[in-house]
UniProtKB/TrEMBL annotation:
Protein known as: Aminotransferase-like plant mobile domain-containing protein
GO BP, one annotated term: meristem maintenance
Domain Aminotransferase-like plant mobile: from-to ranges: 15-173
One Pfam family hit: PMD
Record organism: Arachis hypogaea
């Protein structure tokens, strides 16, 4: 999904605009550089062994590079019991449809994830459609960039409790 100018205000409200702007540069991977770092990584010490000494990446380094907060309530990808966060005991996919106004095609759904390829904001979308698209884009950022898995292309519905209250998202780290 590409970054559409009409959802920038929602990304700014949630504190994820800087992360979304990095999206284009993340698609280009400097494979020799990554390989060099992998070869120098020492998992027993959680450091890189460099010619000038040991070094590691700290949380503050990541916060600086990604423009994200690190001092407030944290978000974890391990929200496995997200059903308890759903208001009124609704089913997760019913809540998804309520927030986004649409369900992914059945062939795109796999238990608690959906392929990101089905979501596309139409050029002639009205404000209500844009408002419903913004949570999907944010869920995509969380699922594929911050808390990615091997597929890198699936949107996980565990992020529903966060995007349901987008105005509160700015307080999460």
């Amino acid at each position: 999904m590409s970054l559409d100018d009409r959802i920038i205000s929602y990304l700014q409200m949630t504190g994820l605009y800087h992360l979304a702007r990095l999206n284009k540069t993340w698609s280009r991977l400097d494979e020799p550089l990554v390989t060099a770092f992998i070869e120098r990584w020492r998992p027993d010490m959680h450091t890189f062994h460099m010619p000038f000494g040991e070094c590691t990446i700290r949380l503050h380094d990541v916060a600086y590079q990604l423009g994200l907060l690190i001092d407030d309530q944290y978000v974890s990808k391990f929200l496995t019991n997200f059903e308890r966060h759903i208001d009124d005991g609704r089913l997760a996919w019913a809540w998804f449809e309520e927030l986004l106004g649409v369900l992914p095609p059945v062939n795109c759904i796999d238990k608690f994830t959906a392929k990101c390829t089905w979501i596309e904001l139409p050029q002639a979308a009205n404000d209500a459609t844009v408002r419903r698209y913004a949570p999907a884009y944010i869920m995509m950022l969380l699922s594929t960039h911050l808390f990615g898995d091997k597929s890198g292309t699936r949107l996980h519905i565990r992020w529903l409790p966060y995007v349901a209250k987008m105005k509160d998202m700015g307080r999460y780290s």
